[in-house]
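Notes on consecutive records. When two proteins share a document, each keeps its own sequence and its own token line. Never mix them. Below: protein one.
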Amino acid sequence: MSTVFPGIGRRRALQGAAAGFVAFGLLLWWLLPLGEDPPGGTIVFSTGTPRGVYQEYGERLRSELDRDMPDLKVTLLNSAGSQENVRRVATGRADFTIAAADAVETYELQHGSGAGRLRGVARLYDDYVQLVVPRDSDVRNVSDLRHKRVAIGLPNSGVRLIAQRVLRAAGIDPAKDIKPMSDGIDTGPGRLKKGKIDAFFWSGGLPTKGLVELARTFDFKFVPIGGDLVARLHTEGDAARYYRATNMPESAYPSVQQGSTVPTIAVSNVLMTRKDIDPRLTEWVTRTVIKSRDGIGAHVHSAQLVDLRTAIYTDPLMLHEGARRYYRSVKP
């Protein structure tokens, strides 16, 4: 009888210990490839506007990449949003970015320069369309925006793309029936608070920091975007197929929603790159994105929704070969 492992045979104890080491080794391999030096170099990551989810996620992801790949320099570039992000990666001005699926599809349908080189890395989280007005506003639905001063997002933003479609679905010409304003989440909340605009559209993860901050000092409400509008959007076909009717959960902005959900539209976000980006680098980036979900999610709530089981679905983009390698390596 072993004195080191009382009550069990030495052989069984050694087998158990060996199994434990194997399990531990597999865990380390999943987190970080053993026997392989991390890739280095420089990449450019296009994010979004200040106080938006894209920017905050990009900053947190850069910190995680620094830990996993200390010889990789990640440069962040602010952008107007999805449309600019897609164009930057397609044309080589950036190497990685996040963009809404409808913006990606729109760029491809327009045969934008380099569209055929775009590849998916991971499906991340959903954007929710958030139409914001003062609490005492007489705006009750989208059609009430007629003749109002409405911020529809920055040029080349995903917000503008979806805001214009929603307005048209409600029978409003964005160029004639409202006074369109080019504000994003960086300036829209402040201008609404000062009475310089009557409403603004935002499309982003929940909750968005800019709206959380606004709720602390200003009384506002969300205008519902009903399922009937989504049905009308779908008649446009093409990129509009990525919109789905949903409800913004009451937990998104508790002090604003006061226990009520808000009917709205959601669209998925995709982390993307180009076909020519090194597969080994992309595999490491993919691993870091999945591994860092909880760490980033502690600060960016939307990131908690990143899921290995759904990350592979990067429609309308084909998976990058490096991302494919990662997903194959962790497939049960």
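Protein two starts on the next line and is unrelated to protein one.
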Amino acid sequence: MKSAPRSSSSSKARPWAAIAVLPFVAAAAAVAVVYFSISARLPEPLATHFGGVGSRADGFTSTRGFLTLLLTLLLAFGTVFGLLARLPEPSELTPWLIAGGYALAAAIGFLACRTLFANAGATDTSAVRLPLWEPAVTLAVALLAGALGRLLAGPAPRPSGRAAGEGPRLDLPAGTSAGWSRTIGSPPIVALGALLLGAGLLALVLTDLPAGIGLLIGAIAVLPCAAARVTVDRRGLTVTSPLLPPPLRIRHLPLDRITEATSRPISPFKEFGGWGYRIRAGASGFVLRSGEGMVVRLTNGKEFVVTVDDAVTAVALLNAYLDRARSRKEGA
């Protein structure tokens, strides 16, 4: 059997990873240049957190620690966004993911540079302040950078998929067994988890403990849903997370709970209202992107949907095992 078609070659030919990494490298370079150009005028420690009336300094960090933290954060985010852009199957959300990376890099870089300039020449860091209009300017810079990133990313690739139809069968000789497995990830969910993780680590360093812990808990809750390994074998259909220990599974459907399997294009927002593990009337699913997916009809009349590459092969193998199980029942 042939695998489902992938995105167009023009989509894959685009340097997604280079475009995604560029703003983080540029922001890190800008922060480093500003730091070393005014390092002789920077106090020790730096005022790095501002709050209350007049945005007065209420948090402080060593100068080298501040530079190390910001460069590490920017390069870590650049690595994450670059890896996401290199996923085997770009989706229609990839350009928007890149745009979000540009906005994030610009916001971090702008705030870091503004913080360094605000501290330059200060003799009493407790008196350092940032203007009240700073958040509005930061937002504007982020939006402009995001627009630039979206422009550089170019048109969105079209998701692949196959039309719904009668479930295909794989020729599986009696007495033989086979298995099929694929892993798929969701760039938006990975980005959200990475943002929560980075913000949590940053909050632990620059602000208070409860905020950082809350963000880290959010990252722990989100990241396991960012990828899934879909397996079809003689036991049925199994969906697991690469970030969860082996005993934990997202969903397992044995053969005796399945009546038929087909493949078709899946639209997460249109059909389920979003990504992740979703439940609606008559159906549930683990959907991480638009495009090709398995649709498994259950004995209770409901459906389970999972988006995955080469779903047609998985469906053919699952139907072959279902036919074999029915033949055994009829012959018993």
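For the record: The chain has nine helices and eleven strands.
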